[in-house]
Amino acid sequence: MKVSALNCPNCGAALQILEKVALANCGHCSASVVIEWPDTTLRRYVRLGLNSPFVRCPLCAAQQLCSAEVAELEVACHECGEKSIMPQLTEHRIITCRECGRMYSSVEARCPDHERHDRF
């Protein structure tokens, strides 16, 4: 976990914080400070396209390879070490619409232009 220096908002003195503690007390002026830790369960790797097995770390943007073995698991980035959730990989195929010839992903139920087909 990366550690950033935190100072007391009351007097400016450095705070000593234990990991995952939500409240810290300033040793200099005794002010109480609420610490908001990031929720790693909400942080997910970013996909690099529908058919791509590659994702980017949401913190440092390092490229990672995603596989079915690590899908939906918390995985540490090889660059920054922060943990994020890998996305679920799905199989996609490219389909050509019989009506208009437009290509679309099999994830979509039908051609995105299906409403215009009746007009032609």
Instruction: Describe the largest sheet.
Output: 3 strands, antiparallel
Can you count the helices?
Answer: 1
| Strands, count | 9
Termini gap: 58 Å
Order of helices and strands: EEEEEEEEEH
In terms of per-residue confidence, which ranges show pLDDT below 50 for 5 or more consecutive residues?
none
Overall shape: it is: elongated
Helix content: under 10%
Q: Helices and strands: which structural class?
A: mainly beta
Radius of gyration: 23 Å
Please list the strands of the largest sheet in the order they lie side by side.
3-4-5
Provide the domain count.
3
Give the amount of beta strand, in percent: 15-25%
Mean of pLDDT: 76
Short summary:
With 120 residues, the protein is mainly beta. It has one helix at 114-117, and strands at 23-25, 32-34, 46-47, 54-56, 63-65, 74-76, 83-85, 94-96, 103-105. This is Hydrogenase nickel incorporation protein HypA.
Task: Report on this structure.
With 120 residues, the chain is mainly beta. The protein folds into three domains: 1-37, no CATH class; 46-85, no CATH class; 93-120, no CATH class. 3% of the residues lie in helices and 22% in strands. It contains one helix and nine strands. It has one helix at 114-117; strands spanning 23-25, 32-34, 46-47, 54-56, 63-65, 74-76, 83-85, 94-96, 103-105. The strands form four sheets. Strands 3-4-5 form a three-stranded antiparallel sheet, with no helix packed on it. Strands 1-2 form a two-stranded antiparallel sheet. A two-stranded antiparallel ribbon has the order 6-7. Strand 1 and strand 2 (32-34) form a beta hairpin. The mean pLDDT is 76. This is Hydrogenase nickel incorporation protein HypA. It comes from Maioricimonas rarisocia.
